[in-house]
Amino acid sequence: MARKLAAGNWKMNGTGASLGELEALVSEGVPQGVEVLICPPAPLLTRAAALAGDIAIGGQDCHAAVSGAHTGDVSAIMLKDAGASYVILGHSERRADHGESDAVVRAKAEAAAGAGLQAVVCIGETLDEREAGQTLQVVETQLTGSLPDTASASNTVVAYEPVWAIGTGKVPTLEQIGEVHSALRAALVARFGAAGGDIPLLYGGSVKAGNAADIFAVPNVDGALVGGASLKAADFRPIISALAATVAE
Ligand code: PGA
């Protein structure tokens, strides 16, 4: 059984004033049986980590190298040093805005594991790919190419995020989510054996308080990667509670 994770991706949103939202989440505590992760913009990492309590803190990207002449980038070891325990890698916005290929994501995942970070590796099809009936082929190719051979439940989380569902309010049907997650689970087990059954599989893309419980009831959905609804504690808290309810059952 994979562990349960509610992950918030603040993207390029938030200044020091936003840490009040994290403080509000911390004051509620983390429910039994789930992990909660917040990934703020890099400049907030140190301050976020200092007040995060039981909530894990993560970066949103890292460079594959440990250090060097890469202006504007941060390395996995720097994230770890700033207090992060996770890093999101290969988000579709990075793949689109920065041309990140599966091979680049894989190299970053190796760097993250080397630094002792858990990688949240994102994959997902575009609307064109879904409409062309290529979804499973696309996500399985991304999964294979983006995960290093050393991936395990202790250093890797996979997030299935259909590109067309991110920030749009459009969500796949529960059947569509279930179809992809069961294919991804099968692919993980085929490659990593029983250990592939323990790698958490998150769904991401327009997860809200109103749809979280239904999505978490889909087999092989072990949590969510949440963008917009993670920015305010009042929006994220019910999503955490919905995940915790699946454990309490
Ligand atoms: P969203 O973003 O929840 O705002 O759709 C999800 C993500 O990009 O991780």
Structural topology:
Blueprint: E1 4-9, H1 19-28, E2 34-39, H2 45-51, E3 56-59, H3 76-81, E4 86-89, H4 92-97, H5 102-114, E5 118-123, H6 127-131, H7 135-146, E6 156-160, H8 174-192, E7 201-204, H9 209-216, E8 223-226, H10 233-248
Helix pairs in contact: 1-10, 5-7, 7-8, 9-10
The structure holds 2-phosphoglycolic acid.
2-phosphoglycolic acid binds at residues 9, 161, 166-167, 204-207, 225-229.
Placed side by side, the strands forming the largest sheet appear as 1-2-3-4-5-6-7-8
- The CATH superfamily title: Aldolase class I
The CATH topology corresponds to TIM Barrel
CATH architecture grouping:
Alpha-Beta Barrel
Q: How would you describe this structure in keywords?
A:
249 residues, globular, 16% strand, TIM Barrel, 41% helix, alpha/beta, 10 helices, binds 2-phosphoglycolic acid
Q: What does it look like?
A:
The protein is α/β, with parallel strands linked by helices. The chain has helices at residues 19-28, 45-51, 76-81, 92-97, 102-114, 127-131, 135-146, 174-192, 209-216, 233-248; strands spanning 4-9, 34-39, 56-59, 86-89, 118-123, 156-160, 201-204, 223-226. The chain has a single domain, classed as Aldolase class I (TIM Barrel, Alpha-Beta Barrel), CATH 3.20.20.70. An 8-stranded parallel barrel has the order 1-2-3-4-5-6-7-8, surrounded by 6 helices. 2-phosphoglycolic acid (PGA) is lined by residues 9, 161, 166-167, 204-207, 225-229.
